[in-house]
């Protein structure tokens, strides 16, 4: 599965890793795989990726760089797929939401997690107990702000970057 992700500053990945230590029964994301999905694109081989990337670049033509801000810790009690709960860093970014909507013109939404259900976030950990997720969501964190000046094509199967697109596109 390929997705288009917003790169994270080191401070966001460090915060997610630090918070995950307080969820020992959950499966934490490895620091190098933290990401902020803007839109899932689909799967396939290298040729399929090239077609997906071309469609994404066309959809993003003229799109500006955007601002993003971690505003706190929250959780999804029931994930659309995979272990629950999902503890995450909440990200406020009208710009990323606008990019997501642009990409919906070229790619169908994934039911239950995209389109109107899209919530910009950085996953901290999955699984564990709901009580632990609730406790961590009560924790206050200092906001972290950054500019998103490029998006990364992420290959989830290989856990590597497959390419980038600069913003403005």
Key terms:
single chain, about 170 residues, alpha+beta, Cyclic Phosphodiesterase, Chain: A, 5-stranded antiparallel sheet, 4-stranded antiparallel sheet, 4 helices, about 35% strand, globular
Whole-number count of domains = 1
The CATH architecture category equals Alpha-Beta Complex
Provide the residue-averaged pLDDT. 93
Tell me the series of helices and strands, N- to C-terminal. EHEEHEEHEHEEE
Number of helical elements: 4
Strand order of the largest sheet: 2-6-5-4-7
Report the portion of residues in β strands.
25-35%
Oligomeric composition of the shown chains: single chain
Main sheet, how many strands, which sense, barrel? 5 strands, antiparallel
Using only C-alpha atoms, the radius of gyration works out to: 16 Å
Class by alpha and beta content: alpha+beta
Question: Distance between termini?
Answer: 23 Å
> Do you know the CATH topology?
Cyclic Phosphodiesterase, Chain: A
The count of DSSP E runs of length 2 or more, i.e. the number of strands, is 9
Query: What form results from the Cα inertia axes?
Result: globular
Q: Specify the CATH homologous superfamily.
A: Cyclic phosphodiesterase
| DSSP helix fraction | 25-40%
- Under CATH at level 1, the class stands as Alpha Beta
Low-confidence stretches: none
């Amino acid at each position: 599965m390929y997705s288009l992700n917003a790169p994270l500053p080191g401070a966001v990945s460090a915060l997610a890793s630090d918070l995950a230590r307080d969820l020992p029964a959950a499966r934490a994301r490895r620091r190098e795989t933290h990401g902020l999905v803007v839109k899932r694109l689909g799967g396939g081989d290298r040729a399929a990726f090239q077609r997906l990337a071309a469609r994404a670049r066309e959809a993003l033509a003229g799109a500006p760089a955007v601002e993003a801000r971690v505003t706190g810790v929250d959780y999804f009690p029931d994930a659309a797929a995979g272990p629950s709960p999902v503890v995450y860093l909440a990200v406020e970014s009208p710009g990323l939401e606008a990019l997501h909507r642009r990409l919906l013109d070229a790619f169908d939404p994934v039911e239950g997690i995209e389109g109107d259900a899209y919530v910009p976030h950085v996953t901290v950990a999955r699984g564990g107990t709901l009580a632990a997720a609730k406790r961590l969501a009560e924790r206050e964190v200092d906001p972290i702000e950054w500019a998103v000046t490029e998006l990364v094509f992420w290959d989830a199967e290989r856990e590597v970057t497959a390419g980038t697109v600069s913003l403005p596109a």
